[in-house]
Amino acid sequence: MMAMPTPHPQMIEKLRRQANEIRRRNVRMIYEAGMGHIGGDLSATDILTTLYFDVLRVNPSDPNDPNRDRFIMSKGHCSGALYTTLAYAGFFPVEELDTYMQPLSRLNGHPDRTKVPGVETNTGPLGHGLPVAVGTAIGGTLDKAAWRVFVLTGDGELQEGSNWEAAMTAGHRGLDNLTLIIDRNRLQQGAATAATVRLDPLADKWRAFGWAVEEVEGHDYGALLDVFGRLPLEGGKPTCIIAHTHKGKGVSFMENQVGWHHRVPSEHELAQALAELETAL
């Protein structure tokens, strides 16, 4: 296999700064709304930033371009991270983030494709995004289309059996236009994933279903750019990227703390979080 070029340091720095800006806006947004899923938002931010600012072939001025790549946010409860990323990517004005969770706002707790530009499908009930992505990828193969399908799930979400039915179908059909990214922060609502339903050996499970699998550090932009640049990892197989992340990434008192699954920061905590993220610049 031909070696991929090392990601340019300037691109990595651009992504780091963009992700930090998205994190700061997301933290403020959840504080102002008084609700949200801040821990999972922060663990997924680097993945979303890398996708939307370098990898995905999408056009914010034409969100329904038939030739676009399709991205599905299966962990739809982390809508805050998705909305913030979409806004900074140009799909709608950043100022609209001020309406998050407000009555009649189109920025609901769960993404709605009929309201928000850039949202491919409604998600929120866990275990739905991957099956929809598999169907979408099948449609792409039938049309002999060049566009690709990406889907981001949580690791706790993999306890839903519908994911494994979808995995079996994708492997059987050899959907190499499909890429699954697992936000592997090892925490879910109320407990660690290992204390709820043990997932390991996770990579071996996906390989057994006929997927090509690679594990990466989910906050390492170079590693993310490298693996996304090599898609599909194997011809004739869907790709599963297990991205090892930290819940609450970027804010010291939130990192790896299960209580921050959907807790809202106090005024003091907001100030501390923003100060830490400002220092990270």
In short:
The chain is an alpha/beta fold.
Can you give a write-up of this model?
With 281 residues, the protein is of the alpha/beta class. It has one domain: Thiamin diphosphate (ThDP)-binding fold, Pyr/PP domains (Rossmann fold, 3-Layer(aba) Sandwich). The protein is built from nine helices and seven strands. Strands 1-2-3-7-6 form a five-stranded parallel sheet, with helices on both faces. A two-stranded antiparallel ribbon has the order 4-5. The longest helix has 25 residues, at 9-33. The termini are far apart.
- Classification by helices and strands: alpha/beta
Strand tally is 7
What kind of oligomer do you see?
single chain
Shape: globular
Listing every helix as H and every strand as E from the N terminus to the C terminus, the arrangement reads HHEHHEHEEEHHEHEH
Just give the CATH class. Alpha Beta
* Level-2 CATH architecture: 3-Layer(aba) Sandwich
Domains (count): 1
- Uncertain runs: none
Q: What is the overall number of helices?
A: 9
Instruction: State the share of residues found in helices, binned by percent.
Output: 40-55%
Mean pLDDT: 96
Strand order of the largest sheet: 1-2-3-7-6
